[in-house]
């Protein structure tokens, strides 16, 4: 339900209250994106993923859960 960033990671807040993070190094387009591009995101697939239209990046929550 929410996405945020710090200098090294992208952070997701899930609908059930869990929070997961992943290193930006896993996602070079997000790593190299401007702050303005990073904050422009939308949920896709009824909330199963996040899309950043300006950089054409998609991240599925299930992908992140497998990597943890």
Largest sheet: 3 strands, antiparallel
Report how far apart the termini are.
Answer: 19 Å
Low-confidence stretches: none
Structural class by helix and strand composition:
alpha+beta
Strands of the widest sheet, in order across it, are 1-2-3
Q: If helices are DSSP runs of H or I spanning 4 or more residues, what is the number of helices?
A: 3
Mean pLDDT: 93
Rg over CA atoms: 11 Å
Helical content (DSSP H or I, runs of 4+) = 10-25%
How would you describe this protein?
This protein has 68 residues and is α+β, with helices and mostly antiparallel strands. It has three helices and six strands. It has a three-stranded antiparallel β-sheet, with no helix packed on it. A three-stranded antiparallel β-sheet has the order 4-5-6. β5 and β6 form a beta hairpin. It is globular. The two termini are 19 Å apart.
Please provide a brief summary of the model.
This protein has 68 residues and is α+β, with helices and mostly antiparallel strands. The protein is built from 3 helices and 6 strands, in the order E-E-E-H-H-E-E-E-H. The longest helix is centred in the last third of the chain and has 6 residues.
Helix and strand arrangement:
Elements: E1 2-5, E2 9-13, E3 19-23, H1 28-32, H2 35-38, E4 42-44, E5 49-52, E6 57-60, H3 61-66
Antiparallel strand pairs: 1-2, 2-3, 4-5, 5-6
Keywords:
single chain, three-stranded antiparallel sheet, globular, alpha+beta, 68 residues
